[in-house]
Amino acid sequence: MVLILLGSVVRNISEIPSSNCGRDGLSHITIAGAVADRLKEVEVWLQTFAPGTRTPIHRHSCEEVFVVLKGAGTLLLGSSSSKYPGQPQEFKIHANSTFTVPINDPHQVWNTGELEDLQMLVIISRPPVKIFIYEDWSMPHVAAKLKYPYYWDQECLNSPKDEL
Amino acid sequence: MVLILLGSVVRNISEIPSSNCGRDGLSHITIAGAVADRLKEVEVWLQTFAPGTRTPIHRHSCEEVFVVLKGAGTLLLGSSSSKYPGQPQEFKIHANSTFTVPINDPHQVWNTGELEDLQMLVIISRPPVKIFIYEDWSMPHVAAKLKYPYYWDQECLNSPKDEL
């Protein structure tokens, strides 16, 4: 089944396998990217967060654009210019909104709703993504831990480039 | 109004100005990209084609991913390995489908429906896009005409890089 999907020029998104990456309430689908399409410059994800769930606090040196398809939530955005992220700015996000995350800025996206899923298309550059994870907003940038390859990129064997 | 939008971290997509780029039946919105966000690695468009309308036959050296949100149509895909595109392959596209266009392959997307708009999110790498346009499928690649900056990138003053 997967082999058929990989060989198709046009794919039905609902037939692309999803994963929760070991996190309750998450559904991740790579719509197009490094593993299935051997793309080197862009990757597109469809991510769905159940009410109350969120991404880790993390940063990456690639560009990132979000398009919110359903639901609502909060973007938390820390600083990359201090030694640690610090108290994050908070921005409300909602269906039919878009936002970009500046390169290397630590950030986190929450589904702060109580009933509705938060569903977003996420676009990153230079896949596969190299994600540095923070335990909290006061952790120094240099202590953030690289998770590579990330859960959905286990089949990628490229070495990570140097990062911040 | 535009200045307010440019300064916002989170934007309402329905408030981003659209353009028809001089083509009846087209609505183009740059959701995030080189002009408004100074992105260098990815750009995201929301494009809507009225029934019977289509893109030009064209190629570009960036990666491109389509996510079809509404409607149906046809992807025509020519070859970059011969001297001219040749008879294109045809692929049906539909809501909730996705496809990527190989770098430098001449292609065209049609709304072949009679009633419904074809709406797609389009992701490209390395904006602003450098588009080479063909008059027909038998035009040699070297005769395709560069249109740069493209309609929605008039404010970009970067020089195009060398292309195929």
Summarize the structure.
Two copies of one chain form a homodimer. By secondary structure, chain A is mainly beta. Chain A has two helices and twelve strands.
Description:
The structure is a homodimer of 164-residue chains. Chain A is mainly beta. Chain A has one domain: Sandwich (Jelly Rolls). Chain A is 6% helix and 39% strand. Chain A contains two helices and twelve strands; from the N terminus they run αββαββββββββββ. A five-stranded antiparallel beta sheet of chain A has the order 2-3-10-5-8. The radius of gyration of chain A is 16 Å and the shape is globular. The interface between A and B is medium-sized, with 35 and 35 residues. β1 of chain A pairs antiparallel with β8 of chain B, so a sheet runs across the interface. Chains A, B: Pfam families: Auxin_BP.
The share of residues in helices of chain A is: under 10%
Number of helices of chain A: 2
Largest β sheet strand count, sense and barrel closure of chain A: 5 strands, antiparallel
Q: Beta fraction of the residues of chain A?
A: 35-45%
CATH superfamily of chain A: Jelly Rolls
Shape of chain A: globular
Helix-strand topology string of chain A: HEEHEEEEEEEEEE
The unreliable regions of chain A are: 1-6
Measured distance between first and last alpha carbons of chain A: 39 Å
Q: Class of chain A, according to the CATH hierarchy? A: Mainly Beta
Residue-averaged pLDDT of chain A: 91
Alpha-carbon Rg of chain A, integer: 16 Å
Number of strands of chain A: 12
**Total domains of chain A:** 1
Category from helices, strands and their pairing of chain A:
mainly beta
Oligomeric form: homodimer
CATH topology of chain A: Jelly Rolls
The name of the CATH architecture of chain A is Sandwich
